[in-house]
């Protein structure tokens, strides 16, 4: 169970994107709001248990448990990465991880490689056109993706492993809002971070998901349980999170792709994804 899904924010001005259907909270969502505090406490305990120094993962432990024998989560401070990768676009501001993810996915699956401007210019243009400069909501990110020749095919407030695996198998990818504790190497035991966008590009030979993290410019392998937990923590702490599956728009125009994609993202809430707390990471060095 997740905290209440906040009503989706008002769509951007018509000159920016096509109008999309707006969602209002249901009676069930209103009822869930009363349990938000209890859920937050449960997830705080989950975080403490899951990511404490040396802690392992139990398949029965906490909400969102996945699989029979998930791999142990790395120790705090023991972040495993595959190092810097030229395909991982590093965000240039505290707040533009969403634009960085949109540009990366556009370069991989959409029209990004046909655009004659730099990746930094693309990020700046997307942030300026679709956001208020304070972060990127799921709705805003879906509009950015449409601009980059992509469409959102499915969304979920938590990890839908089967759907994610099927999308990756046919060449699609995902944009995921997590708590930045998942990827921020400065996180200390028991801490949570900020709502943050990363992309999922595939899986490694150990079955772990490969994330592209714009806050550090690295690829990071994580197991399914840890990825699911980070979405749960994002909901408990930031009232939004989850995943959107992304594929090529295949010639569908931007207004239609924006309208169709925008109708799918209400389940992820209306939280702005930003970055990690390691602000020293951000600079203007991206190409």
UniProtKB/TrEMBL annotation:
Ranges for the region named Disordered are 55-74, 254-287
**Top-level lineage group:** Bacteria
Please report the name of this protein according to its UniProt entry: Peptidase C39-like domain-containing protein
Organism this protein belongs to: Corallococcus sicarius
């Amino acid at each position: 169970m997740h905290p209440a899904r906040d009503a989706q924010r008002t769509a951007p001005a018509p000159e920016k994107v096509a109008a999309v259907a707006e969602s209002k909270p249901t009676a069930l969502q209103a009822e869930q709001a009363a349990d938000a505090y209890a859920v937050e406490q449960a997830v705080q305990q989950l975080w403490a248990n899951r990511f404490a120094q040396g802690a392992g993962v139990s398949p029965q432990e906490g909400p969102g448990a996945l699989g029979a024998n998930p791999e142990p989560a790395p120790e705090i401070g023991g972040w495993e990465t595959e190092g810097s990768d030229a395909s991982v676009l590093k965000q240039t501001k505290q707040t533009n991880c969403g634009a960085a993810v949109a540009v990366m996915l556009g370069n991989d699956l959409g029209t990004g490689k046909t655009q004659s401007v730099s990746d930094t210019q693309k990020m700046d243009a997307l942030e300026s056109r679709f956001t208020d400069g304070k972060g990127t909501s799921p709705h805003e990110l879906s509009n950015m993706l449409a601009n980059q020749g992509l469409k959102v095919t499915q969304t979920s407030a938590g990890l839908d492993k089967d759907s994610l695996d099927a999308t990756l198998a046919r060449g699609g990818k995902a944009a995921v809002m997590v708590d930045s504790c998942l990827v921020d190497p400065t996180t200390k035991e028991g801490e949570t971070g900020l709502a943050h966008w990363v992309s999922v590009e595939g899986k490694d030979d150990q079955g772990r998901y490969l994330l592209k993290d714009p806050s550090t410019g690295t690829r990071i392998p994580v197991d399914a349980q840890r990825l699911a937990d980070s979405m749960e923590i994002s909901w408990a702490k930031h009232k939004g999170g989850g995943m959107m599956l992304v594929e090529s728009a295949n010639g569908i125009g931007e207004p239609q792709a924006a309208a169709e994609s925008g109708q799918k993202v209400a389940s992820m809430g209306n939280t702005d994804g930003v970055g990690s707390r390691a602000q020293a990471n951000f600079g203007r060095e991206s190409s």
